[in-house]
Design a protein that fits this description.
Layout (H helix, E strand, L loop, with lengths): L1 H10 L8 H43 L6 E3 L4 E3 H43 L5 H23 L10 H38 L15 E3 L5 E3 L10 E4 L2 E4 L12
Antiparallel strand pairs: 1-2, 3-4, 5-6
Keywords: Membrane, Transmembrane, Transmembrane helix
Length: 255
């Protein structure tokens, strides 16, 4: 029984209130790295596709007429010209898909950077773009996985159980990371509400601070405000200056 409890404690440690912020930061770093790799692959493929399209255009411009003629019902054109047109159409579709993929990768990189900044600075509003993008991305990936799973050509080089096991693990991992980020986001929102709602009026004590004397315009000695009542140690809220009751870095301890 102790072993089972210990294993359960280890498995739930990343989502424990004490380690939730650390888990969110690690997930954000992982997502940023994956997004940059994805963007690099898209840019690399786009560069090669543009080079291929340029070479194809040069080949079309340099082709010679008068070669073997292939007759159709409407017109006569060389076989090379027909092949070049097919290749040009394929290159155009490839370029279009790569441009779309590069745009999506750029959006994902920006959302992941916002997630990293939000986790480091405890700003819950930076979480929303990544949560939306990753949610729809997970749905799109799941749809592609299901569509490819029903295509028999997918199982030419691997077994069916291997494909479904790998895809299931990856999708489940993505869902778990999204839920962890959402849990940390809810904690930050709850902490922000407590900071705005839980306002306590604390009267300033009349006893001056030790050795704290200053001179007013009338030449009289006035007490220097205590440490916690100085402006640099308070924050401006809707009702005026309020005490900072806790450090913002302690957000991960909030249940």
């Amino acid at each position: 029984m102790y072993l089972i409890d210990r294993v359960f404690e280890v498995l739930t440690m990343p989502v424990a209130p004490k380690y939730l912020r650390i888990s969110a930061i690690l997930i954000a770093i992982y997502k940023v790295l994956v997004a940059h790799v994805f963007l690099f692959v898209m840019l690399l493929g786009l560069a090669h596709a543009e080079e291929m399209s340029t070479i194809l255009q040069m080949s079309i411009a340099d082709q010679k007429d008068g070669e073997y003629i292939w007759t159709t019902s409407e017109q006569e054109e060389s076989i090379n010209e027909w092949r070049f047109k097919s290749a040009e159409k394929l290159a155009s579709v490839t370029l279009c898909m790569l441009y779309i993929g590069t745009t999506l990768a750029t959006i994902y990189v920006l959302s992941c950077l916002g997630l990293l900044i939000g986790t480091l600075r405890n700003r819950h509003e930076f979480f929303i773009p990544w949560m939306v993008v990753d949610f729809f991305g997970t749905l799109a990936i799941g749809s592609i996985v299901i569509a490819a799973g029903y295509n028999q050509s997918t199982y030419r080089y691997l077994y069916e159980w291997e494909y479904w096991s790998f895809c299931g693990v990856m999708v489940a991992f993505n869902i778990i990371t999204w839920l962890v980020i959402r849990m940390f986001y809810k904690n930050l929102v709850h902490m922000t509400k407590l900071r705005e709602v839980a306002i306590v009026a604390i009267p300033c004590p009349a006893v001056p601070a030790p050795g704290g004397k200053s001179t007013t315009t009338n030449g009289l000695a006035a007490a220097v405000p205590p440490y916690h009542y100085r402006k640099e140690n308070m924050h401006l809220s809707d009702g005026g200056l309020k005490h900072i009751l806790f450090d913002a870095n302690e957000a991960n301890y909030l249940v």
